[in-house]
Amino acid sequence: MEKILIGKIVNVVGLKGELKVYCYTDRKERFEELEQIWLEDRTYSIQRARYQGNVAILKLRGIDDRNQAEAQKNKGVYIEEADLERLPEGTYYVRDLIGTAVSDETGKPLGSLSDVIQNSAQDLYEVKTGEGKKILIPAVKEFILDIDMERKSMKVKLPEGLLDL
To answer: Exposure of 22 by Cβ count < 10 A (0-12 exposed, 13-18 middle, 19+ buried)?
Structure first.
């Protein structure tokens, strides 16, 4: 069973054991649909979830006071792979894209996908070339021509002038 990291405990709230979780997912409300989560190597049932800005505040069964909650700070929050949501066709989890071989529209190899940067207007695919350089390609249809997850390959059209520097 593979566990997927979806957040991190960053603080506690109040005296009754609530945990403040910084979410790595784009939908923090996901905690309402889960029955349990893992904190490192132990499972906990979710009693209650509420939200404050971009964090989830969780009350977990078995963590009933501030001291118990404080002991959880900085731990990773995980779900089981079976709990991952099914994605619409043509969308992928970042973890599945990492390592994908990237080539240009002529078939010339560019490198492999090393990261997906998600804090801009649109996602950016970071491609690490064989020479160790990094290329950022906007993850939009204009530039991403094809993704074949079975072959772990991606064909892209490079923005004009990107490699001319």
So the answer is: middle
Contacts 24+ apart (CB under 8 A), 155-164: 155/102, 155/103, 155/104, 155/105, 155/107, 156/102, 156/103, 156/104, 156/105, 156/110, 156/125, 156/127, 157/104, 157/105, 158/104, 158/110, 162/135, 162/137, 163/135
Distances (CA, A) of 71 to 52, 53, 63, 66, 75: 21, 24, 10, 9, 9
Phi first, then psi, for residue 69 (nearest 5°) are -65, -45
> How many Å apart are CA 29 and CA 109, to the nearest integer?
40
Q: Which two tokens stand for residue 152?
A: 């772990």
Listing DSSP states for 101-119 in one string gives EEEETTS-EEEEEEEEE-S
Q: 48 vs 1, which has greater pLDDT?
A: 48
- Does 151 have pLDDT greater than 50? yes
Predicted model pTM: 0.67
Task: Give the pLDDT confidence score for residue 116 in this predicted structure.
Answer: 85
